[in-house]
């Protein structure tokens, strides 16, 4: 190994990785160039570095059952051990990243990189950009907020009737205030007349007082009885309304909440299983693609022992055979390509299953919320009904007691009146005045009692209105939260598109492709229907505008781009993801490989541009391409 470097910042030691038997490489922050021809373990070294950083894309040396790599950055060391287990490779250790998904997509830009290949194939780019975003958690939060909003809406539906009720109660309170004032005035006038009549009265005061008391008591009982009967009528109306509300509630769902919870748990577990399978398939696809794209050269070297330019290597590389990374035997590239295509199709099928499972999760969550809302409403109505029935029974008991008391008073009054048959007209007039005064007093008391009840109901209604105001405020908060959650993904999408377009424009200015006027992603919305709902979903479409020699422009497709043009666009798309998802905050490394389709000057410009955003840039280049970069950059010439 030969390294040209002025300072040491990173140390990589690898054993039995790809085509590497053992190596030790040091480089400093900045641009590190792995200089060499094909089959010189440059890709294997990048994969070893990726493994130490956290990726699962590295493969073992074909004739080894175990390999390892260590990465020292400053004072910290990160390790990864790979072991063969049947046809699979398992890893353990303490890598730089605990979750390598972002880095695999947007920092490890080798030829088999999924982002680069998606651009080359002309795929919809949205899925790649949105994959690191936990949309399942966001959607679950939205579902929970929507359920809370539905509950609040049911309560807020009472707002209009509550306002009308408050208005009626306030009007009734004012009417009662006026009637009470009139009753007081009448009572004061009657008391004056009674005082005058008593001064001139010569009758039997004791008998008259007794008769007056009985009549007053009877009048009081009558008013109380009337009030209780009115209350009874109101309670019966309330009972009828509550029973109607209960009857209008939908029947209990045949779904059992415990069964729904079990199904929901199973669907969520299914989503996790599908995502795990998709990740495993993607890792297998990446390794196979690496074999097809050039990683097989390193494995071939490993099988042969060293790169001496012998005929075995030439035959492997020159023919249409690829060294299988699982068993070391030779298979046709068409066989591996067919396998990769089959795996990619299977992964797409799993993704469709995951979308279906997520839709089922939404449906089950909504059904659970509906059942709980109905049960809560039924409990509230049943409690009100029980209380109303109890009050009605108590009112009936009081009415029965008052009716019995009324009969007793009437009999006693008849007896006293018989004794007072000889009382003169003047006494009759005084008795009538007392009777009127008693009725006026009772009327005033009845009005005041009714006003007190009206005020209690008014206070209760106003408190409920205050609660509804709080519900209204909470509902507005929920609307804002739902809008923010829904907008979060939109903002990420918009930022991704903006970042890509911005960086593409800059790189095109640097690379100066004369016949490409512009390349950009257009974010469009399309509707997706399912389970009785219609949802909008974004799609990212890649557009290319070319310019002819005459200066006219026209739109073209990715399929018509040259290999070098697609390489550049794929690399810039990966870089856009690196910036949009703030990968640099987690990983200050950017790895580049397979740039041969781009000419030397443009490679140099592109690498310098990448270095503006990544602290460590490690790039594998042919000697003639490496010559175009500044000589001050670290160069690794042997691995």
From TrEMBL:
<dbReference type="InterPro" id="IPR038729">
    <property type="entry name" value="Rad50/SbcC_AAA"/>
</dbReference>
<dbReference type="GO" id="GO:0000785">
    <property type="term" value="C:chromatin"/>
</dbReference>
<feature type="coiled-coil region">
    <location>
        <begin position="340"/>
        <end position="502"/>
    </location>
</feature>
<feature type="region of interest" description="Disordered">
    <location>
        <begin position="247"/>
        <end position="266"/>
    </location>
</feature>
<keyword id="KW-0175">Coiled coil</keyword>
<dbReference type="GO" id="GO:0003682">
    <property type="term" value="F:chromatin binding"/>
</dbReference>
<protein>
    <submittedName>
        <fullName>Chromosome segregation protein SMC</fullName>
    </submittedName>
</protein>
<dbReference type="GO" id="GO:0000793">
    <property type="term" value="C:condensed chromosome"/>
</dbReference>
<dbReference type="Pfam" id="PF13476">
    <property type="entry name" value="AAA_23"/>
</dbReference>
<dbReference type="GO" id="GO:0000796">
    <property type="term" value="C:condensin complex"/>
</dbReference>
<feature type="domain" description="Rad50/SbcC-type AAA">
    <location>
        <begin position="14"/>
        <end position="278"/>
    </location>
</feature>
<dbReference type="InterPro" id="IPR027417">
    <property type="entry name" value="P-loop_NTPase"/>
</dbReference>
